[in-house]
Amino acid sequence: VSTQSTWDFLEGNEGQHLIKIYMKLNLEISSRVKIWMQIMSIKQFKFDYQTALKKVNEKEEPKKTIDNVIELDARRSFNSHKEISQESMINILKVYASMNKNVEYCQGMNFIVGFLLLLFKNEELTFQFFSCLIAKYKMEELFTREMSLLKRYFFNLNLVHD
Questions:
Q1: Per-residue exposure over 121-146, b if at least 16 CB sit within 10 Å of its own CB, e if not
Q2: Tens of pLDDT, residues 50-64
Q3: Is the dihedral of CA 145, 59, 62, 72 positive or negative?
Q4: 99 vs 102: CA distance, rounded Å
Q5: CB contact at 8 A, 90 and 79
Q6: Which residues are within 8 A (CB) of 42 and not within 5 positions of it... i.e. 6 or more apart?
Q7: pLDDT tens string 69-99
Q8: What is the model's pTM?
Q9: How many CB atoms lie within 10 A of CB 45?
């Protein structure tokens, strides 16, 4: 049985109940990765990561400030984890910043990408998942300079807390 047909049943609302059951079970990491990829509809994500990475690395112009911030943040996060490549984290964040001009990079993204690299152990797949995660759950507003969504969440949290 092909992987595609094995996991197709998880798409749509009818699969949500099964996903919850599977997540409660002690699944191997590889099975969890397949479930997460299905939830995020990775198959539908069309972006040539390798070409974008090449473009980002071939820039002849002076480094942008955003590149410097990405490098600084990536090098000081997850530096004790040998399983997480600092270079992969930098690559993913630079490509995302060049792809999404509205957001570019915001502190905190490095921790999300680092965790995903630990899970997926693949740079391109991690980039795809990260990009889909931001888009699917409309997280862009969490990472804009204004942080409007984050402010709204804190406002609502304060209302509930008081």
A1: eebbbbbbbbbbebeeeeeebbbeee
A2: 999 999 888 766 567
A3: positive
A4: 9
A5: no
A6: 125, 128, 129, 132
A7: 999 999 998 888 888 999 999 999 999 999 9
A8: 0.74
A9: 16
Question: What is the total residue count of the chain?
Answer: 162
Among candidate residues 98, 38, 128, 147, the one with its CA nearest the CA of residue 139: 147
Structure tokens at 68: 């410097």
Gap between the Cα atoms of 110 and 56, Å rounded? 18
What are the CA-CA distances from residue 54 to residues 87, 113, 121 (Å)? 14, 19, 20
Q: Distance between CA atoms of 142 and 27, rounded to whole angstroms?
A: 31
Closest by Cα among 126, 152, 130 to 141: 152
User: For residue 111, what are the contacts with CB-CB under 8 A and spacing of at least 6?
Assistant: 77, 78
Residues 74, 117: Cα–Cα separation, whole Å: 12
Burial 83-92 (b: 16+ CB within 10 A, else e): ebbbebbbbb
Average pLDDT, the chain: 81
- Supply the DSSP symbol for 115: H
Tally the C-alpha atoms within 13 A of residue 46's C-alpha that lie toward its C-beta.
1
Distance, CA of 150 to chain centre: 18
- Structure-block tokens of residue 135: 């888009």
